[in-house]
Amino acid sequence: MTQLAERGYALQRSLGCEVEWLSPEQVQQRYPFYNLDGCVGGVELAARRELTPGAVVNAAGAWAVDIARGAGVDLPYSRTGAELFENDCRCTAALGIPPAAHGKLNEGQPV
User: What is the pLDDT of residue 101?
Assistant: First the structure.
């Protein structure tokens, strides 16, 4: 386990999460289709329990309806053909990302 993985696992445990550490071999046994190149391990809820979220955020933008449909949810939303977006230049500059002040999207494709 790497130092970063150890810290993440310790944080989850300190927050009361009942998780178990899995070796890469254990991850491969449980999830055989995962690409484990560079994997140092993983965590799983103790006793292989499942979480039931109180809320789920679908932030898929132009693809939100399709993503929701794939989860069996009928999202009452229709595309307008164009959406505007704006980057906060303070954040993008701090990250070294050039700002795109305004843009227009048409069915998810740049115009």
Answer: 44
